[in-house]
Amino acid sequence: MITPMTLTESGTLAGGEAVLFWIIAPLIVLAALGLLFARKAVYAAIGVVMMMVGLAFVYVAQGAVFLGVVQVVVYTGAIMMLFLFVLMLIGVDSAESRIEAVRSQKPLAIVAGLGVLIGLLGIELTTAFPTPTDYPADVINENPLRIAVTLFENFPLTMQLTGALLIVAAVSAITLTSRERIGRKVTQRDVAEAKMHAWSKRGTRIAQLPAAGVFATHNATDVAAPTGTGGVAHEGVPRVLRVRGQELTIAEVAPHMLQERDVPIAQSQLPGMPGSAKPVIPPRNEVAVAPKPEAPEAPAAEEDEK
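User: That's the sequence. What structure does it adopt?
Assistant: Structure tokens below.
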């Protein structure tokens, strides 16, 4: 049987009870501080569990066995259920779970566990515990009976609302975290087929539109793109083609671009952009269509092979 804490004639705790209190009380305070200052939900939940279990030990040591059991079953169980809801809703990053924030926490945990074990064994071997005695039957049944009468006779509406709230929370967590899809999962092939169907029916553009300001005349891999300052970005061509000498120049692909590169660009006289008058865009039907550039001639080496 578990005996309650005994007091000395001066009103202080006896030896074993005092040691038990001074071991559990700092752990409870540290767990509470961990709950307040932990940055991760996992560590905060562990702090709550440690605090609740420590309080349960104190209750049992004072003779309130029923209250200690309820503390573990109800409060610790409820907190762990709440923690489960949090994990179901937000999840835990797998990469984060593999990172050890405190590198020395495993050795410290081992040392702390051995210290607690040695301390408890020392208390068990050196403390003279009083002979346990049985509680009277009326004392054993009195506390649970009074708690039940107080809760279900004086606060019936509160208990009903609490039960309904727990049910709603459980159903909501399951609903919000459900990964079941209403329809079939859309694959990359489905997206491609939908784009082709839209192109065949409505003429919708299949590829992505270029960004504003981009004027491309060639899309081959062996042609370097012009930069915004009029230069050539040779780094855009694969290194293998550049080493083999298979890179085509802009003069070979679009000779007219070299002539247009030296033409000054008119400015629109907007704030911060002084210059000539803004260019006048002719109507659509008056725009002259530029002739397509001729295909580049084959190199001499290829003609010799033919």
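The two ends are 105 Å apart (CA to CA).
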